[in-house]
Design goal:
Elements lengths: L1 H11 L5 E13 L8 E10 L4 H4 L9 E10 L3 E13 L5 E10 L2 E9 L7 H4 L2 E8 L5 E8 L5 H6 L2 E2 L1
Antiparallel strand pairs: 1-2, 1-8, 1-9, 2-3, 3-4, 4-5, 5-6, 6-7, 7-8
Amino acid sequence: MGRLSDLRKMLSEGRLGFKMDEVMSGYHEFEPGMGPPGRHPFEFRVTWGPKSLVRWINPVSSDFMTQPLEGTVTAGALCFRAPCKGILELLYFTEGKIRYTFDFTVGATEYEFVGEKVHIRPWNLPVSHTTCFGIVKEKDTGKLLSRSVTFFKLWRTPSFLASARLA
């Protein structure tokens, strides 16, 4: 009974959240002159989840359906498992999309990735929730480095769901 009352207290104080582990993999292509031509592997492995369920489900909160993420990114011919950190926005109700935004550093250069799962509708969830279109740009200059397409592989669904935990 003590654990249940602890959870209730954490929830009422806005200190109870959750975390999940997600893997998105596919490819990226450098813009002309920015790297070797052709398709290169692109993958990000991130852990995301809100710190406060109360703020996360509150539509007037600045944290509504937005949560921090961190993990690693691999961009062929650029980096292998570089640490990344940013946010995941579930923009279901406003824009019909999910947006991943994170920063990572290679050498002395900081990059920003922005990827979106688009056209989210109840009837196309298996497609809209599995494909993410992204770009990588230099953070300081805004110069476009590459474009990516990554996929949530449906065979990963059991491990994704099993990764859900209170935080």
